[in-house]
Write a structure and sequence with these properties.
Elements (H helix, E strand, L loop, with lengths): L1 H17 L3 E8 L5 E4 L5 E2 L5 H13 L8 E4 L18 E4 H10 L3 H11 L1 H10 L14 H5 L5 E2 L1 H12 L6 H12 L15 E9 L2 E9 L4 E8 L3 H20 L2
Antiparallel strand pairs: 1-2, 1-9, 3-6, 4-5, 7-8, 8-9
Helix pairs in contact: 1-9, 3-4
């Protein structure tokens, strides 16, 4: 099985090298501990994958008594931003508790919920929190849809291996405690954007977070196959159609190699 696994990973490496753009990949077999990566330690544009470590930071803040998941936050009309989510569809301002905002942020990638949570946590607070989570290249430098900051080159970033390390901690129940780790995983399993890693794995459970933007597509998560594994894809300045097709096929092939499905 290990030989099949390695051959599949080497095939994936060759395919990544044939694709255009800035591409990163990280894989870890959660049973054997075998790792494989391509630019896995580099920083990549984050898009909505940044919402995953933000969720973990918020839970850590709650554990330390600095906030509570039941705290209510008011989302003002002027805070609403486009694209993914539900909060921008409400006619007026809306109040929601932090846990609800986190679930919206992860499950349907709600950008308005994310920005409200970033404002509540503050950029400085998130920077310190990410450092305490062991994140060096994964950073939130601005709110979503801040075109002024983006024009100045201020971008949010993720690192494939750093995302993988967080996912492994969740799988092992080592993030805060088993209960909190399970909470994050349960929310990630309810992700509703499933056309990438889960595109060809309809019968396999995946706990993951995606991210999309112009010429950019990411997906990071745990694949609960017979031999579970962490897998993280990050890509920008790329042909999104080809890259997402690759993500679908690579995840499926690794699942087959790993699990003898």
């Amino acid at each position: 099985m290990e030989n099949t696994e390695l051959k599949t990973l080497e095939k994936i490496k060759n395919e990544i090298q044939s694709l255009s753009g800035q591409l990163g990949f990280y894989y870890k077999n959660l049973e054997s501990g075998f790792e494989y990566g391509i630019r896995e330690n580099d920083a990549f544009l984050a898009a909505s994958v940044i919402k995953f470590p933000l969720f973990m930071h918020i839970l850590k803040q709650c554990e330390e008594g600095k906030m509570c998941l039941c705290d209510k936050l008011l989302v003002e009309n002027q805070e609403k931003v486009p694209s993914c989510g539900a909060l921008n569809l409400f006619t007026d301002s809306i109040e929601a508790d932090i846990l609800t905002l986190c679930k919206l942020m992860i499950c349907i990638s709600d950008n308005t919920a994310t920005n409200r949570l970033i404002r509540h946590c503050t950029l400085n607070g998130i920077e310190k929190g990410f450092f305490n989570l062991g994140l060096e290249k994964t950073k939130i430098r601005r709110r979503l849809f801040d075109s002024e900051a983006s024009a100045r080159g201020i971008e949010n970033t993720i690192c494939p291996k750093e995302m993988g390390v967080l996912l492994e901690k969740l799988y092992k129940g080592e993030f805060i405690n088993n209960e909190k780790s399970k909470l994050v995983i349960d929310v990630l399993k309810k992700q509703q954007i499933n056309h990438k890693m889960g595109g060809k794995l309809k019968e396999v459970c995946i706990a993951h977070k995606t991210g999309e933007d112009y010429m950019l597509s990411n997906d990071v998560g745990i694949v609960y196959a017979k031999s579970p594994f962490v897998i993280c894809f990050a890509g920008y300045d790329t042909d999104v159609y080809k890259w997402e097709d690759f993500i679908r096929n690579a995840t499926y092939e690794l699942c087959m190699a790993q699990c003898n499905l």
